[in-house]
């Protein structure tokens, strides 16, 4: 793990809540990531999130863990697949899956658009307004905005001072009733599990601002989604399998929606999304049951990795965690 807020690492304490798994947090140090001895363990999981500032660390750690004497979950090299521009290229051309192409652009390029020196299509080919913009390495909607005109670009740059941004095409994913629905799905060793569903009249959905706590009808719809999640899997099974295979990640989450045409629309893939069972049980009586499935599946996955039924060469190696 790396020091940081709740979004800095996979929420393992939530995933292993009330579990019989002993969880040891090992915090990496910059420049010399494994400078201190690692305690004995059965499985090692790379839990820190993808950030551009972590690229050198990822490269160094990938080399150190390549021949690790214990199973490694979420290899460092694969973590870079969750970066928004990488993910949009990686998951492109999957039948039944839609993901807007995402491009890294400089502040200077956006200033040129705002001042009418160039068109938005000059910055990212075959794109026009509206577009979605956010700073690099931003999560949880920080400075995320829909830009519909040059004026919007000017206004956005006046309040957001970052030097680099991700830009992508805005896709209207509203349902026929005008509401937007966003799903969070965990994929554990290739098997998808429902984590939550949020419903809002606004395109930018976060569970805490979607009135899920105030609106019983929305909570009832979320309960139905989780109870009938097998239907969701049936509709998108091939796309979900491709996400698992192409990312190479043993554990990851996706924030997604369904387009009116029936495609699975991907907003983000990440192994550090918040997954928990801490919601008020009186308001969300369905949540604990379905989140127990996630936690049980994750626990069982760790056991399978730690104690494989076949005695592979890796399983026979004597542990050596020295540098």
What is the fold's blueprint, element by element?
Blueprint: H1 12-15, E1 44-45, H2 55-65, E2 72-73, H3 76-79, H4 84-90, E3 97-98, E4 102-106, H5 107-114, H6 120-123, E5 131-135, E6 145-147, H7 150-159, E7 164-169, E8 180-188, E9 191-200, H8 216-227, H9 229-247, E10 251-258, E11 264-270, H10 287-306, H11 313-316
Parallel strand pairs: 1-2, 3-11
Antiparallel strand pairs: 4-7, 5-6, 5-7, 8-9, 8-10, 10-11
What does this structure look like?
By secondary structure, the protein is an alpha+beta fold. The protein is built from eleven helices and eleven strands. The protein has helices at 12-15, 55-65, 76-79, 84-90, 107-114, 120-123, 150-159, 216-227, 229-247, 287-306, 313-316; strands at 44-45, 72-73, 97-98, 102-106, 131-135, 145-147, 164-169, 180-188, 191-200, 251-258, 264-270. A hairpin with a 5-residue loop joins strand 10 (251-258) and strand 11. Helix 5 (107-114) crosses helix 7. This is ATP-grasp domain-containing protein.
The CATH topology of the largest domain turns out to be D-amino Acid Aminotransferase, Chain A, domain 1
Q: Please state roughly what percent of the residues sit in beta strands, choosing from under 5%, 5-15%, 15-25%, 25-35%, 35-45% or over 45%.
A: 15-25%
Order of helices and strands: HEHEHHEEHHEEHEEEHHEEHH
How many structural domains?
3
